[in-house]
Design goal:
binds zinc ion; alpha/beta; about 220 residues; 8 helices
Length: about 220
């Protein structure tokens, strides 16, 4: 309701073309979906092979999807959502995942990559939790908040080596997980790939045997 009130005061603008009334118009959505990300989700360098991973990358998850490059409309849409309080962008981003990801078996459990607590306090919400909840509802899948952040280290402003070092200790999982289920990790952007790699390892340490990864965007880091 508060979001509707804010929308009344300051109408939503398309992140691509600025059209009033929507956060992403159909035409700008097409711009994103007609150029899907075709590289390996782990290294972003070599063409994706089977399951979104190239032949040379060894990762603990079975498959990965990245919807598109993190640039232009998609970058602005994610950026607005994370750093200004456009809470309703979660619906737009969940819908994008719903439209672009393939059908999944009913045994899939959606697990959001949790946001660090200073960012939750600053924004008033955990943006990936909002997206995961809506995506799971659209798909009729269940959702679990199995992962917790073990540290409050910020990933945004540090270099590659430090990001990887931080990611190794970033998560804990308090639940014991079902080896028969498939855990689908959801994140908004894959940068070095370290976050989803160590999030997957944490799930596997708690009993998961099958982990898939879906990210809204992929950022090549060079
Ligand atoms: Zn537009
Ligand atoms: Zn690769």
């Amino acid at each position: 309701m508060i979001d509707n009130y804010i929308a009344f005061l300051a109408p939503h603008l398309c992140s691509g073309c600025g059209t009033e009334g929507v956060l992403l118009c159909d035409s700008c959505k097409n711009d994103i979906t007609e150029e899907p990300f075709l590289y390996c989700g782990a290294c972003a360098k070599r063409p994706a092979g089977k399951n979104g991973i190239c032949k040379e990358c060894k990762v603990p998850y079975e498959r990965v999807w990245c919807i598109a490059d993190r640039r232009d409309h998609l970058q602005r849409l994610i950026g607005n959502f994370k750093f200004t309080n456009t809470k309703s962008a979660s619906t737009t981003l969940a819908q994008l995942l719903h439209d672009q990801l393939p059908d999944m078996p009913a045994s899939v459990i959606v697990v959001p990559v949790p946001t660090i607590s200073p960012h939750i306090r600053q924004r008033g919400y955990d943006h990936m939790l909002l997206i995961a909840r809506q995506f799971a509802k659209m798909r009729g899948l269940s959702m679990q908040t199995s992962l917790r952040r073990a540290t409050t280290a910020q990933q945004r402003s540090v270099g590659r080596a430090k990001r990887i070092e931080q990611a190794k200790r970033a998560f804990t999982c308090s639940k014991s997980l079902d080896p028969e289920k498939i855990y689908l990790l959801l994140d908004d952007v894959i940068t070095t790939g370290a976050t989803v790699k160590y999030a997957t390892k944490t799930l596997c340490d708690s009993g998961a045997r099958r982990v898939w990864v879906a990210s809204i965007s992929r950022q090549p880091m060079d």
